């Protein structure tokens, strides 16, 4: 590379010279080798090593390095890189050296840069790094980028793509085009394009372009859960897991999907976790209640979305079947029954079919079956359940209420248990007991027996003076039926008189016989009644004989009972006055029972009756002489009150206890004086009328009314006195006050 310039003696041997070097030479490339020749006078060596003291143009691209003891090389430094196209084509390097004797030498080395076909060079980002491009999926085909390279020789460059089978192409001008519409979910997510630029000399440079396909939200999420039908039991607690719904979003294939779940229908029973898709029970599900009783399946539409608002979504319908459990015990309505059965019903008589009144609301037949057991209670041995399934209650034996073993029993109290056949699946927080049915069976008495009187016939002796309304006796009848029948009494025949249809009355319930009218022995001495006893269905009769007992209840009746006549004053003692006699009759007394006495008007006892007792006839006799002359007598007219009693035959003791009746006769006697006797009297005759107020004991109301009237009168007088006192107190001021104003 070095060519000597002349033959002069010099320190720098091999210089000056001209050397060439290719552009872009690496550091350390030798351009020229020269030696330093020392004079024998300077054995110590070189004082100043060969040095490039100047370059034209100035550059730091060259340097001198020692090769041997006194041999040196000019080499490239690599900094800067020699570039034929941008740097001077030639450099003059002045090399200086000095030995220890002070001799110096300065020679020039001319370095000429030789052009070399260099590789093209990418510009921009391609020159310093791998370019990464991002293309949204779904972007239409077209230009996505342009690469740019230069050639140091300014030659025309061409671009190519390796490998070829990719959905991209590079035009010769460096434009990169996509040749398809990318789908992130179907295509590759990243492409590495090796872009090669080549100059006309065949030199090339390859750089990589990384094309990443960017995923966008353009896909609907889809359900990965394939199951569409689920089954759960009813009455599950809140929070019970039903299904775990899962879905996937194709846009999130490389990462967990962020999806949102919701229920679009039938949200009444279920809820879904919006983040996890867990479907669970939220409220009570009763298979036995409507509408699930008819339609046990629930349709739920689940929606999945890839955004809480908007975005893409998908829906899926799932069906949840609700299975019945035995969670209901049978119930009976009513649970209390009251039945009647006639006594003496034959064994096997049907009474009640309980199944008609009981039901189990569980819908599944295997859960709603039940039976009837445990017949118990008072008298349960008389009854039986013919079938545990039907609950058919029948009598096992005839019941006779008149049987001493059943006496007094009218109602039998029974209990029956109704319970599930299947094992119960009741909730743990409730205690379910078998339903208890109460049955009350009343044995209805049958009228089997006729009433029977205590006597076939009755005889009552009744005094004829017995008061009206009095009870004269009682009849009694009963039958053998149990409970005892209600017996009513009535009079069928007998007891009538001329004036009354029936003078007797019988109490319908007590059997007391009473008289409705006064009895009269003298008219009828005996009454025969036909009395009936009835238990509303069956009857019996008995005869009642009422013997009317005679009682002295009739007054003597005498004729005449009033008479007026005149007698002379000189009538002899013992004379039957005017031949007058009375004749008496008594319907209930012997003619010998009469007794006669003058009770009133017999002044000086001038008159008497003879006989005075023992006969039904008696004469009026003058018993003593009339004496007007001596003044013993002054009455010229006598009004005699004659009493006739019927007690002549009674002893003194019997008179105190027996009833005695009295008849009366009134006589007016006028004494006629002698003709010589002057009597200043006016002839006349006197009629004596006797009225007796005889109180009848049957008229009990008379004293009551009188007493009540007296009390009312006294009360009225007291009230009037009170009003008068009040008026005086308010209108009459107290005396003694000066300023009082007189009324």
TrEMBL record:
The keyword Plastid does not apply. Pfam families: Cadherin. GO terms for biological process: homophilic cell adhesion via plasma membrane adhesion molecules. The chain crosses the membrane at residues 700-728. Gene3D superfamilies: Cadherins. PROSITE patterns: CADHERIN_1, CADHERIN_2. GO terms for molecular function: calcium ion binding. Keywords: Calcium, Membrane, Repeat, Transmembrane, Transmembrane helix. One of its GO terms (cellular component) is plasma membrane. It is found in: Membrane. Residues 13-122, 127-223, 224-332, 333-453, 454-562, 559-685 form the Cadherin domain. This is CDHR3 protein. It comes from Piaya cayana (Common squirrel cuckoo). The gene is Cdhr3.
């Amino acid at each position: 590379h070095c060519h000597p310039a002349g033959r002069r003696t010099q320190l720098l041997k091999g210089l000056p010279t001209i050397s060439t070097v290719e552009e872009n030479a690496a550091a350390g490339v030798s351009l020229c080798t020269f030696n330093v020749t020392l004079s024998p006078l300077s054995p110590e060596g070189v004082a100043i090593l060969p040095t490039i003291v100047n370059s034209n143009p100035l550059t730091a691209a060259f340097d001198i390095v020692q090769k041997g003891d006194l041999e040196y090389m000019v080499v490239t430094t690599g900094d800067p890189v020699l570039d034929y196209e941008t740097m001077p084509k030639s450099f003059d390097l002045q090399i200086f050296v000095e030995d220890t004797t002070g001799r110096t030498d300065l020679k020039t080395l001319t370095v000429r840069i030789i052009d070399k076909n260099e590789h093209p060079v990418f510009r921009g980002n391609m020159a310093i790094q791998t370019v990464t491009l991002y293309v949204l999926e779904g972007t239409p085909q077209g230009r996505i980028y342009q690469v740019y390279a230069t050639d140091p020789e300014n030659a025309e460059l061409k671009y190519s793509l390796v490998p070829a089978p990719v959905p991209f192409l590079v035009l010769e001008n460096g434009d990169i085009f996509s040749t398809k519409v990318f789908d992130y979910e179907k295509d590759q997510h990243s492409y590495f394009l090796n872009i090669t630029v080549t100059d006309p000399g065949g030199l090339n440079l390859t750089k990589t372009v990384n094309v990443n396909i960017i995923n966008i939200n353009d896909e609907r999420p889809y359900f990965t859960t394939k199951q569409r039908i689920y089954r759960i039991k009813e009455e599950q607690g809140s929070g019970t897991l039903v299904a775990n719904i899962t879905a996937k979003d194709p846009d999130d294939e490389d990462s967990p999907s962020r999806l949102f779940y919701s229920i679009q229908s039938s949200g009444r029973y279920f809820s879904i976790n919006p983040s996890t898709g867990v479907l669970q029970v939220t409220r009570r599900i009763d298979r036995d209640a409507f509408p699930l009783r008819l339609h046990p399946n629930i349709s739920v539409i689940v929606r999945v979305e890839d955004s809480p608002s908007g975005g893409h979504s998908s829906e899926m319908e799932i069906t949840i079947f609700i299975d019945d459990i035995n969670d209901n015990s049978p119930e009976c309505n009513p649970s209390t029954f009251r039945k009647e059965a006639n006594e003496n019903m034959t064994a096997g008589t049907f009474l009640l079919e309980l199944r008609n009144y009981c039901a189990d609301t569980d819908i599944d037949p295997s859960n709603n079956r039940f039976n009837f057991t445990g017949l118990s209670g008072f008298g349960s041995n008389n009854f039986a359940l013919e079938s545990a399934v039907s609950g058919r209650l029948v009598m096992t034996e005839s019941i006779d209420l008149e049987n001493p073993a059943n006496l007094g029993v009218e109602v039998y109290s029974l209990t029956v248990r109704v319970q599930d056949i299947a094992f119960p699946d009741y909730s743990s927080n409730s205690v379910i007991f078998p339903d208890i049915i109460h049955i009350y069976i009343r044995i209805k008495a049958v009228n089997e027996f006729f009433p029977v009187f205590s006597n076939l016939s009755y005889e009552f002796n009744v005094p004829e003076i017995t008061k009206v309304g009095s009870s004269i006796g009682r009849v009694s009848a009963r039958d053998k039926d149990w409970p005892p029948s209600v017996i009513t009494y009535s009079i069928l025949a007998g007891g009538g008189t001329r004036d009354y249809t029936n003078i007797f009355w019988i109490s319908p319930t007590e059997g007391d016989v009473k008289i409705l009218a006064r009895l009269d022995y003298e008219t009828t001495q005996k009454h025969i009644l036909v009395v009936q006893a009835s238990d509303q269905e069956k009857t019996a009769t008995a005869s009642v004989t009422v013997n009317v007992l005679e009682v002295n209840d009739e007054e003597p009746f005498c004729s005449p009972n009033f008479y007026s006549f005149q007698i002379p004053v000189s009538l002899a003692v013992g004379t039957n006055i005017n031949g007058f006699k009375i004749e008496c009759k008594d319907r209930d007394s012997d003619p010998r029972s009469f007794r006669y006495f003058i009770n009133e008007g017999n002044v000086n006892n001038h008159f008497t009756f003879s006989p005075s007792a023992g006969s039904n006839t008696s004469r009026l006799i003058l018993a003593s002489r009339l004496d007007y002359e001596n003044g013993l007598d002054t009455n010229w007219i006598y009004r005699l009150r004659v009493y006739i009693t019927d007690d002549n035959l009674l002893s003194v003791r019997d008179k105190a206890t027996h009833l005695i009746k009295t008849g009366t006769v009134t006589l007016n006697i006028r004494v006629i004086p002698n003709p010589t006797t002057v009597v200043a009297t006016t002839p006349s005759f006197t009629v004596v009328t006797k009225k007796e107020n005889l109180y009848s004991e049957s008229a009990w109301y008379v004293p009551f009314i009188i007493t009540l009237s007296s009390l009312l009168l006294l009360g009225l007088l007291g009230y009037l006195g009170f009003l008068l006192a009040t008026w005086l107190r308010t209108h009459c001021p107290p005396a003694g006050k000066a300023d009082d104003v007189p009324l």
